[in-house]
Amino acid sequence: MAQTSSKESNSAIFIIFGGTGDLTKRKIIPALYNIFLESRLPEKFAVIGTGRSKFTDAKYQSSLLDAVNEFSRRGKAKKEEWSKFASHISYQIANIKDASEYKEFGTRIDALKKEWKEDPSIVYYCAVSPEFFCTIAENLHKSKLENNEKTTRIVIEKPFGSDLQSAKDLNNKLLTIFNEKQIYRIDHYLGKEVVQNVMAFRFANAIMEPLWNRNHIEHVQISVTEQIGVGSRGDYFDNAGILRDMVQNHLLQLLCIIAMEPPISFDADVVRDRKVEVLQAMRKINPGKVDTIAARGQYGSGWVEGKEVPGYRDEEDVDSNSNTETYAALKFYVDNWRWQGVPFYLRTGKRLFKTASLITIQFREVPHNMFHGEEGNVPKQNRLVISIQPDMGIRFQLESKKPGLEMTLNTVDMVFDYMGKTKSESPEAYETLLLDIISGDQTLFMRADQVEEAWDMIMPVLDFWEKNKSANFPNYPADSWGPENAEALIAKDGYHWFNLPEKNKKD
Ligand code: BG6
User: Fold this and answer.
1) Distance 390 CA to ligand 1 centre (A)
2) What are the angstrom distances between the C-alpha of 173 and each of 136, 246, 250, 354?
3) Any atom of ligand 1 within 6 Å of the Cβ of 193
4) Is the distance from the beta carbon of residue 245 to the nearest atom of ligand 1 less than 6 Å?
5) Does 226 sit in the ligand 1 pocket, CB within 6 Å?
6) Average pLDDT of the chain to the nearest whole number
């Protein structure tokens, strides 16, 4: 993660495979444009989009302008600014499966090097379906386009494998061509502003570390709920399910950031070592007891904001008898000195009541209650609520005296709410991540061993759910908080799921 405000590299070339695809339009180009507006892109840069369709540069640029107008956090692009940015963009038709078509990239790179009189960072961005990751790597290799370890990078989007074995195979393949230091495996949650702030919050405040352990923390909840359904991604999602789509990557990474030991520096490998240690310390799931630590769900139809929405099995490109889970809740333990006995509850799902990503740290009860008297005058447990999105902030829930003549307790919030900053003012995850790729900082990217440990962790649940079909899908209606078995999973330990405090219906 960039720790200075200067431009980290003098020149860069982005070659985007899948240059006409959804990810390029929704995320990559709007992010590049925004960092360009903030003068954070190198002075000399070029974006070469590639795809199978025929486009002139002008037509390609104009399709990207439409995308920026629709998806940029800043809204519509200003004509002059866009023109300046667009002058750096070109298009190259290519069949990514055909090695002979990669030569043209080499020619273009050489021409730019000559023109700039520099050795730019070269980023090969695989914004394509995972089946092409290896093909692209191999063809870059055949065309000798990957051979400068210092300046050449490859960016791989998720899903990184579909299980432990396929992730290992993919790693092995990529590592025969690229060095680990050249591979940027994206988990966009790591680029989110508040997620990065957790590190600052934990390690830049002396008061946090003494509290951050089993002596003071009772349990942790990590909750990523989404109001949207699978939409047009039925084909992908029906083969993946939410465990692969969200838990193996985003949620386990959040857990790692909460549970990791303090790194001695921000060096990418030091930080990633600490995270891998968390995954290694996590208690292995007993394949025979999956039902005791995991609950799954699939959404049925319902009404969202006055509109009727279909159940999962009626979504486009979804099997009408699908056993795929759209909701998962799991309980984990991290078996080390810091966290022994502290449960970590994770939940995520689609078509839920609210879109919110929250991490809640519930502290232990006071050891003795001296506030006798009126009913309810019992100190509530302190909570630290880290709200990643859509609200961005961190709040500490503390007990205080209610103003008045009696000693009555009242819960108050100490809130850091990003100083009222609006969403459009905070950088999108992809902006941070793209800048890091250009500057060669891998801190916020997944290393091979992280990805494999995370797969290893969830394999027993994946296997069990695949082999044992759920008898009661769909088991939660759209616009609800998920299936009852997920409530039961946490309730049997005496807790309940926390939702965002002010809109909290159940808490
Ligand atoms: C993606 C998943 O990685 O993350 C999607 O594939 C999910 O299914 C998305 O909707 C959520 O990301 P965000 O940034 O909108 O919370």
Assistant:
1) 13
2) 11, 24, 24, 40
3) no
4) yes
5) yes
6) 93
How many structural domains is the chain composed of?
Answer: 2
184: in domain: no
Same domain, 63 and 140: yes
294 and 344 belong to one structural domain:
yes
* 157 C-beta closer than 6 A to ligand 1: no
Backbone angles phi, psi at 72, to 5 degrees: -70, 140
**Atom of ligand 1 at shortest distance to CA of 230?**
8
pLDDT digits over 355-403, tens only? 999 999 999 999 998 887 666 688 999 999 999 988 899 999 999 999 9
Using CA positions, which residue lies closest to atom 14 of ligand 1?
A: 189
Same domain, 209 and 322: yes
In a domain, 434, yes or no: yes
Query: The pTM is what?
Result: 0.94
Residue 250 annotated as catalytic:
yes
Looking at the structure, do residues 403 and 353 belong to the same domain, yes or no? yes
Would residue 150 count as lying in a domain?
Answer: yes
The 3-state secondary structure of 42-57, one letter per residue? CCEEEEEEEECCCCCH
Range of weakest confidence among 16-25, 419-428, 438-447, 463-472: 419-428
Q: Where are the beta strands (DSSP E) in 150-282?
A: 152-156, 183-185, 217-225
Length reported for the chain: 507
